[in-house]
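Recap for those who missed Tuesday's class. We walked through two folding examples back to back. For each one, the amino acid string is listed first and its predicted structure tokens come directly after. Nothing is annotated here on purpose, so try labeling regions yourself before you check the end of the notes.
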Amino acid sequence: MARDRPVLDFPLGSHMPTKTMPVLDTPHLRLRALRGEDAPAIYAYAHDAAVARFVSWPRHRSLDDATAFLKYAAQAVASGRELQWALARRDDDTLVGAAGVRLQGHRVELGYVIAQPHWGRGYATEAATRIVEWAFDNPGVVRVWAYCHVDNAASARVLEKAGMVREGRLSAWVVFPNLDGAAGDCWCYARVRR
């Protein structure tokens, strides 16, 4: 019997089973495993200066960078450190972005990126909300958190719509290589199970 919301099927503090990526559905998206054929779409958004502005990784210079990301993601999933989803439209499997979580014991850290042609359609909010729900299906998870650059108002709105609360400002939290390469201040958001 298929579950509407897959659970984290591993003991708290252990590694995620390898070769399992839960598929999560939202009204418009299917969060699925990344595939090799996603590389051109990943390169297209990761090369876009507007998309890459507030991310913690350097803007992609070639398709090789997208392929390297796919290899990294596969290794991270296989090791149990992270889960990395392709955000694909349910109606035609068009890749609109990616999302991932870092598994940190009782904490889950969320990140996402959306290709510019798909901005303003609610995809980031749908994906973030679904991932937060999925994480809290595991009773061992008590905190889902994320950060965004203090000037990234769109991402702050996404996190708030996903049920997260702004906890504070983290000074010089992340180096943003596509801004000026200096450590930038971030807002910390979290949803906590009490």
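Example two. Treat it independently of the first, because the proteins are unrelated.
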Amino acid sequence: MDWNRVIETNRQAVIQVLDEIFALLELALAGTMRCLPREAYLAVETLLRPTEAAVRRLIVIAAREMAAKPFARRPMPEGLVIVSKGQRNPAFALFDPRKRFAKSEAQSAAPEGGPRIHSFESFFQAHAPQAAAPDTSLDATQLLRRFQSVKHALETLPRQALRLVRWKARRKAAENPKFRSPLRPGKPPGHRDKPKHKIDFVLMDCHGLAFDALREDSS
């Protein structure tokens, strides 16, 4: 398989999606409060999650057959100034967020056997239709940082692949790591059973290819 062609084809597709996301984020970038209308905020979040997952899988593919030793810890040189977080690109997460299967406290505390109805009046009050929430603006600061992070990762794929190789080496050396693979089992984050957008198809393609690359590395 021509892995370089696979990476470049999907990279160009993701760039187009990032352009679409940026067009939505421009509303927040134009203001001083960094806010977005609720509808635009949700649209960005819906596109951003599968985009992050697709880029993560491109990094896995780019890291195939790479070998590197983890950085040795060294004392910080005197006089070195660390740039503040607000002035540098936020680091892109190299691994999928893991699913949480534990029940919440509210779910654990709920009595079994269904709700107990003490009066019909209280039952209908509790199940009355709620008024729709007003279309307020939402703080888009975190979305902007995630966009900046995934964009930078896509622009520096070889560097991110080297980060991944070092991350895997540290995991391999650890005694009891929680997980060793950057990709979680099952469906990727942002997966939709009924694809609606270009990024849905890109993610499906990258997901299968990334697992092929991982199997190739382990063989």
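Answers for example two:
Strands lie at 35-37, 137-139.
Residues 3-30 form the longest helix (28 residues).
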